[in-house]
Amino acid sequence: MSAPVAIAASLREVGFAYGAVKVLAGLDFDVRKGELLACVGPSGCGKSTLLAILGGHLAPTQGELERAGASRTIYQDGGLYPWLTVAENVALGVPRGTPAAERARKVEDWLTTSRLSEFRGYHPHQLSGGMRQRVELGRALVAETDLLLLDEPFSALDYQTRVRMRRELVTTLAARPRTVVLVTHDIEEAVQLADRVVVLGARPASVRRVLDLPPGRRPRGPADPGVAAAEETLLEELGLT
Amino acid sequence: MSPPPSSRAIHRLLPVLLGGLLLAAWWAAWLAGMFPTGTVPAPDEVGRAFVGEVRSGRLGEDIVASLYRVGFGYVGASLTAIPLGLVLGRSAAVRATLLPWINFFRTLSPIAWIPFAIIWFGIGDPPAIFIIFLATFFQLVLATAAAAAAVPKVYYRVAEDLGLRGDEILFEVTLPAILPQLLTALRVAIGVAWMVVVAAEMIAVRSGLGFLIIDARNGLRMDLVVVGMITIGAIGVALDVLFARMAQARSVRWGVER
What we know:
A: alpha/beta, 2 domains, 6-stranded mixed beta sheet, 3-stranded antiparallel beta sheet, globular, B: mainly alpha, MetI-like fold, 11 helices, 81% helix
């Protein structure tokens, strides 16, 4: 008999509507502790709404969400405060009440790890898209949060930066493990990074399928076992074949 | 990238050169007899009147009196309009209720309030301050409300994630986020306040640059009228430069640069 799986968040028949417009309907799945769960679905199906519910920014209008601990969300672009410098943005992520020396150490650690030390005094608009996402990641990870929510975090980046950022995310999570829910429209990204993929249908979105991906190195390469089949399955589920 | 020093010096010199040209044109037109007698004074008459006003101390007193009234009216309007604008910007219900009335009062010329200002506040500084207050208050409410309503929602979601609450969100998110637009609104408003001071000092006061102009007009002293006009314009430029410098502060420069 296998050991029981620890659950980070549990959705039971969760639905959400903006007034008369139903966005999500009957979502029923678990987010396992320590996994990277990707959510894919058609554009406008409610993926970001799902993330807002998981982050506690919206309350489900139907069903129940059980979630323990705090979460941090990383947005596609524009989640950084433009009036603060790189170091100040990262420092804002350190929990309130942390002693100043400890706060400074955490910020310094992240700036060194993410090769942003020499940009500490820059403002977000002075950075490239990839550097901004590293700052966002730092602000999210300097706190001991349980759940990291990624809302299409790399979609505003060019292809090369996107590939580099996926590698950096994997490396970072290996050093600072978190439960991650990644919302993306990019099937390749989902297959490269995730342990499991939840496929959502058109609005009002419900779960069409939960796909387990084979274990192995991350990000997965196109020739890795199971990758081509998984991409094919996801394309089929989304009606793109 | 900032322009090289030589280019900056030229940029500073150009307005001075234009001023010299305008002065020369004014003098040439006066010498050519283009203005009917008594309608436009000669530049040297204005210069002598200016020196006389400075030496007598009257110009200094008038400047202080006008700055005092503008200062009180403007600061009073800012301190009340910005909080109200923040409430309007953050609440659609309050906005729907108050916005039509704010627009109603905003479009009324402050001069229309002069009779009420005198009846309510009598003579002296208060009615003039009230007029300056009205001229800037409604503008600042609208500008603050528009800026607060435009703060991206994602900033508030991040604030929730970071555990910011109530006052912390106001002081660490909303105010810094609207500061560039707010500073522009304050810069426009100080110009309006300074512009309205002439009308405000037409009523029930016996000092200030506005009073200087009205009093000089009554005495047909056009040289003094021009002294008053040039002083008001020069102080207006100085105030604008002050606000432009504030817009270069690190906490607001991002709003211009990005």
